[in-house]
Amino acid sequence: MRIQPLARTITAAIALTATAAMAGGQHGDHAHDESFATGETGGAKKPARIVQVTMTETDGKMVFVPSKVEVRKNEQIQFMLRNSGELDHEFVLGTAEENVKHAEAMKKNPDMEHDDPNAKRLVPKATGDIVWKFSKAGTFEFSCLIPGHREAGMIGTVVVR
Ligand SMILES: [Cu+2]
Known about the structure:
Blueprint: H1 3-29, E1 40-41, E2 49-58, E3 61-65, E4 68-71, E5 76-83, E6 89-94, H2 96-108, E7 119-122, E8 127-133, E9 138-143, E10 155-160
Parallel strand pairs: 2-5, 4-10
Antiparallel strand pairs: 1-8, 2-3, 5-8, 6-7, 6-9, 9-10
The structure holds copper (II) ion.
């Protein structure tokens, strides 16, 4: 009697793994620049400054709060992300050019999942984090690339000096 639910759990786990693998493959199809013009993946053991960013919908718009973050060059930031809205949202860090290109790819593939170190997709009420070292000066952006969301206002900027 106890074997039945366990077997179901295992099947579910395998199905989940398969979905994740497929999503990863799909994502790899539209090769985007992996060189990360914004910097590099943060080292988990190095200290990071915490910056909280909330994603939500308000008054017919979709927003990041705050929508502007200032960083010193070579500073490591831990973005503590929270989706306070009713819809899925994602935080994708990149150059404006990369994000526009990526948004176009997502229109063809709206359920594309992001496992990239510079991106995180969150279901409503979920939290997550990204640790990033901004090793290059410049103005970069974070955006939600789910079709329609960028257009609805989900663009933020990171200024690195
Ligand atoms: Cu969104």
